[in-house]
Every structure is written in C-alpha cells, then in structure tokens.
Specification:
heterotetramer, A mainly alpha, B alpha+beta, C alpha/beta, D mainly alpha, B: alpha+beta, five-stranded antiparallel beta sheet, 9% strand, D: mainly alpha, 82% helix, 0% strand, elongated, germination (chain A), transmembrane helix (chain A), membrane (chain A), Spore_GerAB (chain A)
C-alpha cells in the first residue's frame, strides 16, 4: 500500500461530514431556491434520502474488498486495462472537481471577503496550504480535521441558533403547494454537489482503522452533513425569503450577516465564513489527496507525494480556465454537471458492483 | 564553494580521531610505584592547584606509604578528615591488621631484593625533580624499553620540568609527543641549570609531604624499597606474587578501616580520573597498581530552593538543584516505590556529565524507555552543560517552533509525569529535568491545577488556552480587522480606532511590528540585565515607549493595548518553551494578516495545526488527545475533572497499569 | 552532504523571495486612515441624474481628545447617471475612499421615491461592502440631501440619531417602522404585499440645520423627526399614511411593542392606557372568489394616565374601560384599513395571507390583486384588550382635587 | 515575455526544491513521471500567462451530455 498512515473512525466521520458540507453549504441554498422556491428545503430532504441510498451503494462497492482502494478495486474487478481506463475517468473527474472546488472558494472569497485580490492569488495560497496537507499525509489531514471540526461545527450550529429569532416561517408557507415540479426536478442539481462526489471516499476506506464502524461512519457523516445543509437552507428561506435566497450567489453568507445578538454580537459573518473555509479546505485537500493517490496508482509510483506539486499547479490553472465567469459556472453546475457526476459517481460504482458481484458468483459456483 | 564545504566536512570527520587519543591514553593501568602514579596524576591534571595530594603512612610497625588524592572544592573535606585520614592514620594503628600486615611484610621483602639494583638512581627520583637533563634522558630510554606504558613514561620527563612544557604535554597525543621530543629535549638541556633552583622551590611548596617521606624512609629502610619506581625486572617478577597478596591487603583495608560507604577500586587512570574529578577521594597505596576510590562528593552546591521558573501559590516549594543526586532524592522522596527505576549514564567526552533516566517500571511504555536510551546512547558530543543540549539532541524534529520535550524545575511536576508513564531525564548541573514524551497540552498544565479545586483548575487551564490564542493572534487580528475587515468592527469602536489612527504615519502592520519588536527587546533586556536595574526597564518600557509614543503620535493607543495584552498573555503559560514559540509565530501571523487579512490568518492556522499534527514526541502524536481525539483523555487535557474522575492514566503515553485509583466521590452520609 | 547543504541554502533563499513576493500581495488592505466612513446616504433626483449625498464621519471630531470647531460629519455630494456611478464619483470630491459597510441610514428623497427606487436597491444588494442592517427612510416633502445635512445635538452622528430615533419610536410609539433592505426587497417583489417606509421630517429651516450653531443651542431650531409611513406600489412611493393608519399598519404587521391610546371618559376628560404585548393574528380565506381577512388583535395594557373621575377600585369599571378601548381601537383600525384599501396598495401583506391559506385560489387572483384588495376584500377586525394593572396607584387623586376646587368655589 | 521568464525562473526554483523529495524515493519511474507532469504543468502555466486561450474541458462535457441535459434544462427553467 502506498499510504501507510491510518485514520480513526471518528476522523473518517469528521472528514465525511466536512466533505458533505464543503462547497455545498455556500452554493446549494441559492441553487435549490431558484427552482424550488419556498420548498427548497424539501428538495434538500429528498436529495438527502437519495444520498443515503448512494452511500448504501458505495458501501456495497467497498465491501467487495475493503482492503483495496477505489483504483485498486477497479483494476481488481475489471482487469488491468479496463480498470485503468475506468481509473482515468475517475481521475479526470476528481481533477476537475478539485479545480472546481478551488474555483468556488476563490470565487467566494473574491466576491465577499477580499474583492480586489486576484482570484489566481487566492486560489494559489489555498492550493499551497492544501499541498502542504497532502504532503504531510492522510494521517495529518485526519487529525487536523478533528482539531478544526469543533470550531466549524459549533459555528454552524451557532449560526442556526442565532438567526432563529429572525426567522419568519411564513416565508416557507404554503408547504409543497406550488412549484412541485421544480421541487422535485431541483433534486437533480442538488444531488451533484455533495452526494455524487462521495465516491471518492472509496479511496479512503482502506486506510480507516476498522471497516465496519467506518461503513456506519459514512452514513452518520453524510446524514449529519445533509441535515445541517437542510437546516441552513431552511433558515435562508425563513430569514431571507425564497426570492432573496435565490437571488443571492452566496445566501448562507448573507445569513451570517443577519446574526445580531443584543446589538453586540453582530458583524461576525466572517467567523461563519471561516467555518466554511475549513470545510471547503478539507474537501479540496481530500480531493487532491485522492487525486494524488489515484495518480500514483495509475503510474505505479512509490509515493503519493511524487506528483503533488505539478498537480497543484495544474489544478490552479484548471480552476481558472474551466469557467470563464460565474454565470458560465452556474449554468454548468445547474444543467450539465449532474449528469457527468452521475456517470462517475453512480454509474461507474454500479458497474464495479455488478461486475464484482458476477465475478464473486462465478467464483462461488466454480468452488461449489 | 564546493571545496569550502568539503573542507568543512573534512574537518568534522577528523575530529573524532583526535578525541579518540585521550581515552586510549588515559586507559593505561596504574603502576605499582606510588610516586610515579601520583606524578602521572598531577601531570595529567597539569599540576592544577585544586588537586590535593596527602601522603600518609598506614600501619603501626611497618607503615605502608599511601597517598590520598582529592580535588579541593569538589570533595567533602570534613568527611575525608574524619573518615579517611583519621581512620587510616590513627585508628589503623590500634587495629590488628593481622594477616594483612604479615603479607605486606613479605611482599615488601620480596620487592626489596629486586629493587636494590636500581636503587641508586631511584632514590634521587624520590625528589620528584629530575635535577638534570641526563637523568630525564635516562628515564626516557628506560621507558622506551618498557612496553607496558610507554606513553605515560613519555610524558613523565616532560611533565617533571617547567610548567611551560607541562602545558604542552598535558595533551597526551602520540603524534605531538614525537614531534616535540626533540624540542623538549633541547629545552630541557638549556633550562636545566635554571630549573634546578626553580623547581626545587616550587616542589618544596608543593609537596611538603615528600620531605616527610624522605625522613620516614630513613626510619624504615625496608619500606623505602616500595617507593621506588618500577623497573622491568621487578615488575615482571613480582606481578603474580603481588597480585595474589594485594587483594587481601586491599580487602582488609576496605573492610576494616575505610569507613566511607561508596568504596570502589580503580585500576587505570581513566576510572581514577573519573572518580577523582567527580569529587571522590582516591587512595593510592605504595606497591599496588590499583587504588581505592571513596565516595566523598561534597562540593559546594545550592540548596533545595524554590524554583524560579515555575512558581505556584499552592503546592510544594522545593525545586530541583544542580546536583543530580539531590534531584533524584527529591523524586525518590515522593515516590517510595520500588518501581521507580533510575538508570545512570555518562554523556559528554569532556564533561562526563551524569545523566539519570527515571521512569516507573510497569507504568511506562517500555518502547519509549528503549527509544530514550537509544537516543541518549547515540549522542556523541564533547560537552553537556545543560539539559537543553540533551533536549536538542534527542528531540524528534529540529525545525519546528514547538517544543516536543517538556522540562520542569519542580519535583512534584516530574513525579506526576512519571506517574503518567513519562520518562524523566535528569542532567547533572542543571535544575531542569526533561520529561518525555510531551504533548502540546502538557505545556499548558501547571502542577497547581491539581492542587486547587478542579473547577478552578479547569477554568485556569482554559484561560491559558485562551491566552495561547490571544498571545498568538491578537496583533494579527488587529491588523486584519483594521486593514481588511473594517465591517467587522462595531461602528463606535471603529470610529474611535480611526480617530486614534489619524496622524499615525505608519500602516498598522508596521506599527504593530514596531511595538512588538520593542516589547521583545524590553523583555529580553529584562531577563539579561542585572536585577538591580530591573525597575529602570519597566519605567522606560511603560512610560517612554508606551505613553510617549502614543503622545508623540507614532503609535495609536489601541496598538499599545494590543501589545500589552499580547505580552501579558504570553506570560501565562507555566512552561517557558511554549511562550517562546508563540513569540516567534506571532510575527509570522502578523505578516500573514497584513497580506491577506483573516484569510491569511486562517490559512496560517491551518498550516500550523497541520504541522503540529505531523509532529510526534517519542512516537506519541503531538496533538493528542485532541487530534487524534481520545475521549477518555479529555478529562485531563483542556480541563481537569475532579481527582476521582481521573481514574486512568493517559492512554497513548502509558498503556500498562492504566488504573489509577478507585475512589468514589465523597458523599455525606444520609441519615 | 554538499547537495543537502546547498539545497538548504537555496530553500532559505527561495522562502525569502516568495515571502517578499507575497508581501506585495495586499490588494485589499486599506488603512483606517484611508477610508471615509459613510453613515448615511441621501438619494435624490436631479433631472435625469441621481444625486447622492454621503454623510461622512470625521472620527477625530467624534472620538478625539481635542475639541475643535469642525463638525463631526461632513457631507459630500456627487451626481451620476446611475447610483453606482454617483457613489464612485464621490471619490472625486472626498479625500478618502468612501466606505459603506457602516452605513446606518439610506434616505430617499420623496421626489426620487415617487420615480421608483428599484435600481438603487439593486446596487445596494449587489455591492459586497453593503450590509443589510441599515434602515430606509423617505424625506417627507423634502429632498434627501437636506435631511442628510442636518446636524443633530446630543448624538454627534446624525445618521445614528435617526437610526436610534427609529428604533426608539418603533418600540414605544408604533407610528414608525424601521425597514431593512431584505424586508424592503421582499415586500417589493412579493405579489401579495407592498412596501412601506418611514418618513423623515425636517422641522425648521433646513439651511440652518447644516450649521454648527444648530447644535449649539439648547433647543435646536432645526431637528429631524421621524413620523408617518410612506406606502409604495411596486417600487414607487405613492402616499403617506397618517398616524392612526401607521399604527394600524404596525399592529397588523406585529411590529408594535409598546404604544399608548386614549379614550374620552363619560364625564369628560381622557384616560390613556399603555398597550404592550400586542399580537395580531391575521387569517384569511377565499371562498367563491371572495377573499376574506380576519384580524384578531390581542393586547395587554396598563392604565397609564387618568384625567377624569374614574373609579378604579371596581373590576366592573375596568371591564367597561376595556370594552371602550376595544371599540375605539377597532373603529380606528377599520377606518384606517378602509382608507388604505382605497389607496390600492396592500401594505399589510393580506395577499400573502390569502396565498398561504388557499394557494390554488390565489393563483387566479394574483394578477389583479391590488384591485381586488381595493374593492372586494372584506376585512374583519376583532380587538381584545386586557387591562392588567393600574400603575403604582389605584384611585386617581383627581377626584379629591376636583372636590377641593368645588369647595373653594 | 517578462512574465514568462519569471514563471520559468520560479518553476526552476520549485523544481530544485521539489525534486529532492522525489529523488528520495529512488525510483526511476517516479522521476520520469514527475518530470513529465512538471513539464505539463509548466507549459499550462506558461500558456496561461501568455494569455493563450486554452479550451475548457467543460465545453466537451457539455457536448457529451447535451442530449440528456437539454430537456431537463428546459423543464427546470420553467420554474426559475
């Protein structure tokens, strides 16, 4: 095995949770609200249920042989050449995904926090931090996520609690009376962001200390993450109103602006944004790590760190050239990304599962 | 360039060759001739003035000549007087030495016969001052023939000359010796006429005992033979004979008359010097190629005083001192358990520093002990002057701002560490005891946390963690907020900040940097300067730099508050190491804040935590029990739960004998 | 060995180079002494162009140690064809960059508001420096620039004065309403609701208000007063509500925290109560195309001010008083609602109530809601008042005084 | 052009720093793949700096999924 470090089940849960929240927390409320309007939170709930199904499927895939990571698994199940080809598909997707995530955080920072800083620069320093993380290895990423998790989690919960007095639930009424089609259709783009990307955890599974609790942890992380996502969407709708939410590019940041406790605890939206930095940072780092892992499997390299530096630079440039502007990006995320993600995040794992299942049966019948 | 580097490395490789010479030279065994032994010892010490040689006679009828050697200042004079000199010179006369005496008689007779041949020249030698160059040459040739210890002999003539030459020859290096042979001979011949007078004078002062020897020799002719230097014939012939009897004489002396408790024998100069220079007393007896070492360490030392670096309000006030034994005793006094094991080591080719590795057998993780010992053994250095040397040589990672080894001046803290399964490394000559493995949280724990009630202890501990972030981030947060995120500052505060900054000519970063550096200078000056002028610094710091700078409009008053807050916060930590790291990192964070505002600070924090997470202290992840999160160990990390809740020892540090106690919380009896 | 040492040297050099490169990377840094903190913006129309008046703080004057004769705020003005352009043009006059994150008030000139405010709102919600915690107000019968320029006593920052004023008046008077950005946009875009914004009056000579003498007098000749509520139709200002109408509006919107109302006694004189804990429950229904709205107002009150002979020792008397108030408030609300209905703008958000109650029927009427609101909507008002306490005394001493006076006569 | 030179210079420095870690693995393959990727990354960066329009892979993905995406897009846009 290339990776020698091991992470604990708790760390795995935290990583899954952070990954689920990741970029979703800043883009999803707006995306769902623009189609589902007041019912956006219902869309989130539906997406969560489907997401749990996806997690179940992924757990089945990894159960074929949990000591092998995604790339080893695909070569093991599909044979060397087909497996490699599938690995390439996975790797391209992860490369684009990492670049997109990097672009998202860059876009977020340059529209809300530091407006005059060039986005390349923001992406550069973010990627460098990520690079350091990947260089230090999975163990360190796991531990660091554990350290920052309490901050990220409590600040999100605090956000939900502190804006609660401002919430007006008449904004989300009438429940499921209008835009029903939109509510259900919006599930498609909603699924993309956290749920169809979850397959990358198939590459992390073998490095978790114990397997069975890890499977459970996968569920727990995704469920907690989606519940928080749903609650934040609901709060955005209730506090800002569906139209306002849909109109904002980063509504959950605006939600942070609404915090006001006793005329003292205000203007702290950046502290909330920092919680998202952390989740997005771990998402990028994890994606980048898996990318490195997959690359070194693909080329049979000795170390995951070998390609990290060139890949980091490729990702930065990719992040810049992938989308010309934010409208283009929004269009892609809403209308095209779901199907691409579904191909990689559902179809390919399904393929692995099916072929693996058939092979197992064959083996059994042969033995029998 | 390249050549230069190579030269550097080349030199480095040569070094051990040079140093290797000394021990090989020192390891030569003692000889039977007392005077020669004494002479060698003296010459090797370069006739250092703190070496005291007292020659005495033991025995009633046929006294044996002996010399007591000790280092003045290192050894306990009273002890030597009462228990060595007195017993040997007075008490032994009334003791029946019995067998031993007869043996010594026999032996000395045997020696006498052989000795007569060379007596002519040897008697002159008793003056310890070769009066002319010819004699020195003679001896040299003799010694050249003597294969047993040529180096020692080679030194002898030189050392017995002027002090100038002694210096040269004190480094007993073979190569040098050969080179200098000719020149030294020349010098000898040229100086011979003068030296007779000079050396005589000096010797009279130096060894009054020798004169006594001479008179005593006349009284007992038989004994005189044993004073003579060894000749080839006598040595060879007597070797077996002597050794058979010596042992007995030695045991009698050891068992009956040497009342010191630490009595050992030494056979070569190496061990002799080791004991001698550690403050022990050496007794060399004429006719034996070995000597006694008697533990008489009694050098001046600081008493057990209150530790100055870590103070507590409640808790024991004793602190470690510079003496290793005192320190071990302080620990032993607290942990009266046989499982407290103390292993000694000597590190430092020049300092021969005693190092004690302490641990609780059965609690400690044996792998850690093995690792500690291995790392200690791998140290090859000439000097260990403080435990900081050891710390730097055995720590896991050099280039990190964070300390991975804790130190303490407090025995109670060290005992607590031992009981948690840590290994303590004590170094002679410093009151700072190292504790490994040490985790990040350990640097925030004061022993007083456990002496105060748990809720208060917890609150104080939390306060320290808060202070860590305050000390680390206050200036950078100030910079970030005032130059990047003004929207985060409440309007009223922003207005007053802006009002203060009107007219300040520097950007906030430069302002902060200036003030922080000024403060660091103040602090450094405060620690380095003599105590007496301490007040002056505080006046200068507070008034001149603080108030005046604000009034002059060079810095804003908010910045002074920020810097003071930072400064106060950095004094909170019970351990000094972490406060140094914070001081250092603060500047990095300030720079990051000036570049990217809060985003920079956050990324900096991420990198810092990732770096910390990658650290290990003797195999234990540095950030545990937070990352990896160990629920069971949370009871004593950020907060301290009541003692009855601290049932188990920290998980990763000790993995054996986890149970600590089983006390139930005290509850009033219900009627 | 040599290589490693070389590499270390190279590494350290590189770190230094990278650091210096990065140090230049403070694009967004702006020192506190480089920004001009704007606390209020006034928006007016001048021909085709938009005139922006920004109230800029002078921090040294507000928080500094030395007192000078300069004003605490100064106003800068710039014109532009769009709001954004005008704001950017401010920098041509202002010595520093205008910083908008600490904005307290945006004041719209009445003229300007009548012409529609949508484009201004768009910029405000688009700009990253803008927050959402400032209030909107309309300069009543005046231009915003005049309001922005008035200096106020006690509170050195006029915008803060207005902001605080609004907050206080909303809490204990109920005739005004502090409207924030998201609420304003939400009610402007909603099909079943119209926006309403508080008015600002300049009492006295606006010209004199700009001078420092204005704040030097004990009773400032020129003052800013917040009163009345302006109603919008879409993004255009339509009309002013009077005091009762404003109160009614706030009652229905559940914005009343504390207010007073009075009724005449039977034997002349007045009695006033302090109303607190008002809760209005608005329910609606749509049957056969006819929308119906029920407003249930429940209030608790204390007797605040008795200026007539009233026997407050008897519970019966208190109940009588309650029903008297209920009737009076009900009447007041009904007439107010009628008047507002006549204006044809649904500032109450009754449309949304209907929407929530019967979404399917709503779809049919959504298009012409304002007409339906004006003509067909039936509004029932039901007020319940519970008087809890009579203050620190029970019986008024007015009776005794009255008797004494009579004796004297 | 100046920008390109700066980028290449930085790349050389990064290479010198980074290649040491690759060297440690003592695998020829690692080195080869590393160098290949490094050149790839460098060329992309240089192209970007020279403001050459690099076609985005997103267009390709859009083309591939056009038949699936378009009808759903239309029905989604109804709800905007």
């Amino acid at each position: 095995m290339i990776e020698k470090g091991k992470i604990g089940v708790r760390q795995f849960t935290v990583l899954v949770l952070m990954y689920t929240l990741g970029t979703a927390v800043i883009i999803l409320p707006s995306l769902t609200a623009s189609y589902a309007h007041a019912n956006a939170w219902i869309t989130m709930v539906i997406a969560m249920l489907i997401g749990i199904g996806i997690v179940f499927m992924l757990n089945c895939v990894i159960s074929i042989d949990w000591k092998k990571n995604l790339f080893e698994l695909s070569e093991h199940i599909l044979g060397k050449w087909v497996g490699k080809a599938v690995s390439v598909l996975f790797l391209t997707y992860i490369l684009l995904l990492t670049a997109t995530n990097l672009r998202q955080i860059g876009e977020f920072i340059t529209t809300q926090v530091t407006v005059e800083t060039p986005i390349q620069f923001v992406m550069f320093i973010f990627m460098m931090t990520s690079l350091i993380g990947v260089r230090l290895g999975l163990e360190v990423i796991g531990r660091t996520s554990e350290i920052f998790f309490p901050y990220a989690f409590t600040s999100l919960i605090l956000l939900l609690i502190l804006v609660a007095p401002e919430a007006d639930f008449r904004n989300v009424q009438p429940v499921l009376q209008e835009d029903i089609g939109g509510t259900f259709l919006a599930v498609i783009p909603t699924l993309t962001t956290p749920y169809l990307e979850l397959f990358i955890f198939l590459a992390i599974f073998p490095y978790v200390h114990r397997f069975k609790p890890a499977k459970k942890a996968f569920y727990i992380g995704v469920i907690i993450g989606s519940v928080i996502l749903t609650l934040i969407t609901l709060m955005c709708l209730a506090v800002l109103g569906p139209d306002f939410t849909a109109r904002q590019i980063f509504p959950s940041y605006i939600l942070g602006k609404k915090i006001s406790l006793a005329n003292f605890l205000e203007r702290i939206e950046i502290l909330v944004a920092i919680a998202w930095f952390f989740t997005i940072f771990f998402k990028i780092t994890l994606n980048f790590y898996v990318l490195n892992l997959g690359m070194s499997h693909f080329f049979n390299l000795k170390s995951t760190k070998t390609l990290s530096t060139p890949l980091a630079f490729i990702i930065i440039i990719m992040g810049i050239i992938l989308f010309t502007d934010i409208i283009y990006y929004n269009e892609f995320v809403a209308y095209y990304a779901p199907y691409y993600s579904a191909t990689i995040g559902i179809l390919l794992p399904m393929l692995l599962l099916l072929v693996g299942f058939i092979r197992k049966k064959k083996k059994k019948s042969k033995v029998g | 360039m390249k050549k230069k580097f190579r030269d550097m490395f080349g030199k480095k490789q040569q070094k051990p060759v040079q140093t290797n010479n000394i021990p090989s030279n020192l390891s030569s065994p003692l000889v039977t001739n007392l005077d020669e032994n004494v002479k060698t010892v003296k010459s090797k010490l370069g006739n250092s003035s703190d070496l005291v040689t007292r020659s005495i006679k033991i025995g009633k009828n046929q006294p044996v000549r002996a010399v007591i050697l000790y280092m003045d200042g290192l050894a306990d004079k009273k002890f030597i007087q009462d228990f060595i000199t007195e017993t040997l010179m007075l008490d032994i006369r009334i003791t029946d030495l019995g067998e031993g005496q007869t043996i010594s008689q026999k032996q000395s007779e045997a020696i006498e016969t052989k000795q007569t041949q060379s007596q002519g020249s040897e008697t002159k030698n008793q003056d310890e001052t070769p009066s002319n160059a010819d004699q020195a040459k003679k001896e040299q040739t003799k010694s050249d023939q003597n294969s047993q210890n040529n180096t020692y002999q080679a030194i002898q003539p030189a050392s017995s000359n002027t002090s100038n030459q002694k210096k040269k020859t004190r480094k007993p290096i073979k190569l040098k010796q050969l080179k200098h042979k000719k020149s030294s001979n020349k010098q000898q011949s040229s100086e011979s006429s003068e030296s007779t007078i000079g050396s005589k004078q000096s010797n009279q002062a130096e060894s009054g005992t020798n004169e006594k020897n001479q008179t005593s020799k006349q009284l007992s002719i038989e004994q005189s033979s044993s004073q003579s230097s060894p000749s080839t014939q006598s040595n060879q012939a007597n070797q077996a004979n002597q050794q058979a009897k010596q042992g007995d004489f030695f045991t009698i002396l050891k068992e009956r008359s040497l009342t010191g408790s630490e009595v050992d024998e030494c056979h070569d100069y190496f061990t002799l010097f080791q004991f001698l220079l550690a403050g022990d007393t050496i007794i060399l007896i004429d006719g034996y190629a070995k000597g006694f070492t008697i533990g008489s360490k009694g050098f001046e030392k600081r008493g057990v005083e209150e530790s100055s670096s870590t103070t507590v309000i409640r808790g024991p006030k004793d602190g470690f001192s510079e003496t290793l034994r005192t320190n071990t005793s302080l620990i032993r006094r607290r942990l009266k358990d046989p499982s407290l094991w103390i292993e000694n080591m000597v590190i430092g080719e020049k300092t021969h520093t005693d190092i004690a590795v302490c641990y609780m057998k059965g609690i400690v993780n044996d792998d850690v002990v093995q690792e500690v010992k291995k790392r200690l053994k791998d140290i090859e250095i000439d000097a260990i002057l403080e435990s900081g040397y050891i710390e730097e040589l055995i720590q896991d990672k050099t280039y990190t701002p964070f300390p991975t080894i804790n130190n303490s001046e407090r025995p109670d803290a060290v005992c607590a560490g031992l009981l948690e399964g840590r290994v303590a490394i004590m170094v002679d000559g410093t009151p700072f005891v190292l504790l490994v493995p040490s985790l990040f949280v350990d640097f925030f724990q004061s022993s007083e946390d456990y002496y105060q009630r748990s809720d208060i202890g917890s609150a104080l501990r939390l306060l320290r963690f808060v202070c860590f972030f305050l000390a680390l981030l206050t200036p950078s947060a100030y910079i970030a907020l005032t130059t990047f995120h003004q929207e985060m500052i409440p309007t009223q505060l922003l207005i007053s900040l802006a009002a203060q900054r009107e007219g300040v000519p520097f950007p906030a970063y430069v302002e902060a940097l200036m003030m922080e550096i000024t403060f660091e200078i103040l602090r450094e000056a405060g620690t380095r300067m003599p105590r007496a002028v301490g007040n002056a610094i505080s006046i200068v710091g507070a008034l001149v730099l603080g108030q005046a700078a604000v009034e002059a409009g060079i810095v804003s008053s908010a910045m002074v508050i920020v810097v003071s807050l930072t400064a106060i916060s950095s004094f909170v930590f019970p351990s000094f190491n972490i406060s140094i790291s914070v001081r250092l990192l603060r500047f990095i964070f300030m720079t990051l804040a000036a570049m990217f505002g809060l985003v920079g600070i956050i990324l900096g924090l991420l990198v810092m935590v990732m770096h910390m997470a990658s650290l290990r202290s003797f195999g234990i992840p540095y950030l545990s029990p937070m990352g990896p999160f160990i629920p069971g160990d949370q009871k004593d990390s950020l907060i301290r739960l009541p003692l009855w809740r601290l049932r188990t020892r920290p998980k990763l540090i000790s993995q054996k004998d986890m149970e600590r106690e089983d006390t139930e919380p005290a509850k009033p009896k219900q009627k | 060995m040599v290589n490693q040492l070389m590499q270390k040297k190279i590494k350290s050099i590189c770190v230094i180079i990278i650091l210096t490169v990065l140090l230049s990377g403070c694009w967004d840094a702006r020192e506190l002494s480089d920004i001009a903190i704007a606390t209020a913006l006034g928006v007016d129309k001048e021909g085709d162009q938009i005139l922006v008046s920004a109230q800029i703080l002078n921090p040294g004057e507000i928080a500094g140690n030395t007192i000078s004769t300069r004003t605490a705020v100064s106003t800068y003005q710039a014109k532009g064809s769009t709001f954004f352009e005008a704001i950017r043009k401010l920098t041509t006059i202002a010595p520093r960059r205008i910083y908008l994150a600490h904005l307290r008030m945006i004041i719209l000139g009445e003229e300007f508001a009548r012409g529609g405010v949508a484009d201004v709102l768009d910029f405000i919600s688009r700009d990253h420096e803008m927050r959402t915690d400032f209030n909107f107000a309309i300069a009543r019968e005046n231009t915003a620039e005049n309001v922005v320029q008035v200096l106020t006593p006690l509170e050195k920052i006029p915008a803060n004065k207005i902001f605080g004023n609004l907050q206080a008046a909303e809490e204990s008077w109920a005739g005004v309403s502090a409207v924030k950005l998201d609420e304003l946009i939400a009610s402007m875009t909603s099909k079943g609701k119209e926006a309403s914004v508080t008015g600002l009056w300049v009492i006295g000579d606006p010209e004199f208000g700009t001078q420092l003498e204005n704040v030097e007098a004990s009773l400032s000749p020129t003052e800013i007063k917040t009163d009345f509520i302006g109603v919008f139709k879409n993004d255009r200002f339509v009309d002013w509500l009077n005091e009762e109408q404003s109160k009614t509006l706030n009652r229905i919107k559940n914005k009343v925290k504390n207010t007073i109302s009075w009724v005449p006694c039977d034997d002349g004189g007045k009695v006033a109560i302090e109303v607190f804990k008002t809760h209005a429950n608005v329910s609606g229904s749509m049957k056969k195309g006819i929308p119906k709205i029920n407003v249930d107002v429940k209030s608790e009150a204390n007797v605040g001010d008795v200026a007539c002979a009233l026997n407050l020792t008897k519970p019966k008397e208190l109940r009588k008083l309650e029903s008297k108030f209920e009737k009076s408030i009900e009447e007041e609300m009904k007439t107010s609602i009628k008047k507002i209905q006549e204006m044809g703008t649904d500032v109450f958000g009754f449309g949304e109530v209907i929407h929530r109650a019967s979404p399917k029927e709503w779809k049919k009427v959504k298009g012409q809601w304002n007409e339906i609101f004006a003509n067909e909507l039936e509004v029932k008002v039901n007020v319940k008042i519970k008087i809890r306490r009579t203050g620190t005394i029970n019986q008024s001493f007015l009776k005794e005084i009255e008797e004494k006076r009579k004796q004297g006569e | 052009m100046f920008k390109v030179i700066v980028v290449v210079l930085i790349a050389v420095v990064v290479f010198l720093l980074d290649f040491a870690t690759v060297k440690k693995s003592k695998s020829k393959k690692d080195k080869k793949v590393y160098i290949a990727f490094f050149i790839l990354a460098l060329s992309i960066v240089v192209l970007h700096v020279m403001e050459v329009n690099i076609p985005t892979p997103i267009e390709g993905i859009k083309q591939i999924y056009q038949p699936v995406a378009e009808p759903i897009r239309k029905s989604l846009e109804k709800y905007l």
